[in-house]
Each structure stands twice: as structure tokens, then as C-alpha cells.
Amino acid sequence: MDGNELGAFLRTRREAVSPTEVGLPVGARRRTPGLRRSEVATLAGVSVEYVTRLEQGRDRHPSPAVLSTLAGVLRLTPRERVHLYRLSKGATPGFTCQGGAAPAAVVRPALRALLESLEPAAAVMLNRMSDLLTWTPAFERLVRPIGLLDDSRTGAVPNLARFVFTDGRARSAWPDWNRVADDVVATLKQGPFRADRYLAALADELTLTAGPAFSARLASVPGLPAANGVTRLAHPSAGELRLAFETLELPADDDLRVVVHLPADAATATALDGLREGRRGSLRAISGTDRRKVRPA
Fold first, then answer.
1. DSSP E strand stretches across the chain
2. pLDDT tens for each residue of 155-188
3. Closest by alpha carbon to 234, among 172, 159, 162, 190?
4. Is 280 exposed, middle or buried (0-12, 13-18, 19+ CB in 10 A)?
5. Which numeric CATH code is attached to 5-95?
6. Which residue has the higher pLDDT, 244 or 254?
7. What are the residue ranges spanned by the domains of the chain?
8. Which CATH number, 3.30.300.20, 3.30.565.10, 3.30.450.180, 3.40.30.10, labels domain 109-275?
9. What is the distance between the alpha carbons of residues 227 and 123, in angstroms, rounded to a whole number?
């Protein structure tokens, strides 16, 4: 784990871009998935040696102009462009993410009211540490039985990353646990997480308590978490559920995000209605959900 997050991200994005996407002929059999370094260099107007130095971590300070050009060549989304910029800032000596501010622990009344208005949807508000700060009754009915909220009974703040990696029940709760684990790590690593002392401390803790299941991902997951998709959850009483999720990022000064879950099919909608125990209102299944994206609650 050498801390070369910028280089790893550039490499994986290069390997994900098809030559046809940037107007290059596929030609003969290619040994490299996606684009070659030489192709990226030509399209970006830089040398192959420079692209190699960036990917290997020997140069971690590209200019904003170079970052913008590389982002265009690699077909980065707006969200990925922000992530790339933050990674480049995180490689700057003395840079501290979030200004050293502690993770949000208090939810403003207006935001709490906003979350409550989402009932009967299962919605939760988390900070950058993946602490679960507040949630709707529907979310509690959904995840209390799997143990995710157990810490709240003693006044502690439940943490999604700790639960996924250190509680054995998590592997039973999420049939796609490996994908869930990847996504949890990707969420923690958004931007220059190593420059954030709070995230760095959590990463050190999980490296010790979870071992290779966490540390290997810390070294090898360079992308961003999915902002939407479908997650499967094995509920003790309702059975396997398919939940469509949407992630809503709040302003940076709030340091929070809301994840909303809705039924992804009719069977899940019926099962969730059964958990409501006679309460009014129901949720319709979301049509056209993407079955390929899977992530945690």
C-alpha cells in the first residue's frame, strides 16, 4: 500500500476506456485492456514518460491544465473529475482534507425534517466516516434485524464500515458482500482520504481489526462508489429484498450524504409493506432498475 491513489485511479480509468470511445481503431489483438499509455499521451499532448510517471507515483503534482486534459481523454464524469482533482491535492505536502475539521456529528433541524419527510422510504444520513447519524423508521425496520444499528442501543454511533468488515452478520445480510465491501472502501477513499486524520485513523483501526479483507481493498480499490443502483439484502423475516438506492450529496459544509432505498421489484414492495405492520402508505416498485450495480444500505 504505497499511497499512490492518483496513479491507481488514472490507470484504472485508462484501462476502462475503449479505443473506439476516443476515435481510435481497435486494430490487432491488444495486450492492454482499454487505452495504451502511448495513446493517452498522444491524445493529451504529453509524453509517454510523463503518463508513466503519473501512474507509477513518481510525479504526483500535475497542473490543473494537464488534469483537465487527462479527464477529457479518459472520459471522466463530473464526479470523477472532482475526485481526480482532490487526489492531486492530497498528494501535496501539508494539504489537509476538510481543513482538519471533525466529521459531522450533529444534523441540522431542517435536514432532520427533510429526512423524516422521506418516510415510508428507508433513508439514512451518513457523514464522511460512514457513521449513521439519523434514519427513517422504515430504515430501522429494514436494518435493525441484521444488527447494523445495535450500537445505537448503548448510545454509540453505528458505523457502516465497522459493521461490514468486523461483524460476521454482515456477510449473511448482504448476498453480494464482496461488492458491498468494495463499495464501502471506495466511499471512505473519496478524495485524498490519507490527508484526513479522522479517516486515516479509521483505516488504521480496520486494518488491524479486519485484516486483509479491508487492507487489500484499501490498496486496490481506486474508483468511486456507485451513486445509484440496486442492493440485495437478506432480511431475517422478509426474505431477500432488492432495493433501488439513490445517494444524495449535501453541501460540503454539512459533510453529509443521504441514501434512499426503494423497492426494486414488486416482490420487494410487497415484503416492505408487510414490515410496516398496518401503517398507512406504501411504496411502488421502481421500474427499469439496473441489476448490475450492487452496493450496501
1. 122-127, 132-135, 228-235, 239-249, 256-263
2. 899 999 999 999 999 999 999 999 999 999 999 9
3. 172
4. exposed
5. 1.10.260.40
6. 244
7. 5-95, 109-275
8. 3.30.450.180
9. 14
